[in-house]
Specification:
The protein has 86 residues and is α+β, with helices and mostly antiparallel strands. It is built from four helices and five strands; from the N terminus they run H-E-H-H-E-H-E-E-E. It has a single domain, classed as Arc Repressor Mutant, subunit A. Helix 1 crosses helix 2.
Length: 86
C-alpha cells in the first residue's frame, strides 16, 4: 500500500513550489499526483480544516485555464485554485 494521500500532497508541494512558502496551483498538484479529483478534494479540505494547508482563489481569474478551473476545490462557496503549506 502506498503512502497516505495527505503525505503525498505535502511531498508534492516541496517538489512543485517555486519559492519557499510560495503557492502551488492545484492543477499542477493534480498532474503531479495523477489522482482523481474526487480523491484529492476531501483530503485537501481536511488538511485545510486542520490548518496544515491554506487554500486561496487565484486573484487573476482571466489567467486560469479550463483545467485550472476543473482542478479547483470548492470551499465556503468559492473555488480555490492554489495551496500552501502552513
Amino acid at each position: 500500500m502506498g503512502r497516505p494521500l495527505d503525505k503525498r500532497i505535502i511531498t508534492a508541494y516541496h517538489s512543485l513550489v517555486y519559492d519557499p512558502g510560495g503557492w502551488v496551483m492545484l492543477s499542477r498538484l493534480h498532474d503531479h499526483l495523477g489522482e482523481h479529483k474526487h480523491d484529492i478534494d476531501p483530503v485537501l479540505i481536511g488538511m485545510l480544516k486542520t490548518r496544515r494547508i491554506r487554500l486561496i482563489a487565484e486573484v487573476n481569474q482571466k489567467m486560469l485555464t479550463d483545467y485550472d478551473r476543473e482542478c479547483a476545490v470548492m470551499f465556503a462557496g468559492e473555488p480555490k485554485h492554489l495551496y500552501q503549506l502552513t
